[in-house]
Every structure is written in C-alpha cells, then in structure tokens.
What we know:
- It is a single chain.
- The chain has two domains: about 1-55, no CATH class; about 55-135, no CATH class.
- A two-stranded antiparallel ribbon has the order 1-2.
- By secondary structure, the chain is mainly alpha-helical.
- Helices cover about 50% and strands about 5% of the residues.
Amino acid sequence: MFCRHCGNQIADEASVCIHCGVPVGKGKRFCHHCGAEHAEEAVVCVKCGVSFEQTAAQKEEDFMESLKSFRSTLDSLPWVAALLLVLFADGLFGGLYRLTKGDTTGIVVGILWFVTGGFFGIGMLIDLICIIANKKITFLA
Length: 141
C-alpha cells in the first residue's frame, strides 16, 4: 500500500506512515485560495499563507452571500413560475423569500410566514396581487 500523503510504500497493517508521520487513509487537501496541495492536518497554506480555518465572521459572510444568491435566483424567476410557487407553496416560498432579506424584519416576517402559512392565506392573496402587478413579490420583502 502507498501513503496518500507522501506516496511512499508502507506496510498494509500500518496505521501511520513511517516516512511522513501522517495517519494512513489521510490524504492531501487543496488550498481554496491558490489551489496548492497540502496535508489534511495543515491549518495554513504553506504557499500563500491563507488559513484553512474559517472564522465566525467568514462563516456569517458566506451565509449572507448564499442568502443574497438565493434571493437573486428567486427574483430572476419568470413571473409565471413565481405565481405558481405562491399558489402552491406560499408558506414555504414566501417565508424563504422573506428570510433571504437578511435583516431582522425579513427574518421575523419569514418565520411568521412559515408558521402561519402566509398569514393564514391572506399573505398568499397579497403575494398574488404583488406578482401580477409588479411581476415579483414586493410586499414586506
């Protein structure tokens, strides 16, 4: 068998490579910044110095970026598709759309939309009117 880290031959029953000290079965990973290959245990890229550990701020930034991306996808739907989503899944679709706003109001209204099924159907009517009039959901969004 060969070590996935250094490529040297090691015994089949080995649990650690005697050449590089990396546990058997552990391979290399790639830097998300420069693409350089590194040991899986590495915490920083030796080529560019980027940390492999995400900070809480980076995770939050990535989450907010994914919300913006999801919202832009919803905004780019043809109005007929948005209309069908509102008709058949307004509690889910309307709640998701409002959650993607990312601020406190959007989060509160999005959760209310989920829990009440679009304010017990009233929200669905409002969304239908907004989609027909504006070609997208604008009420409380």
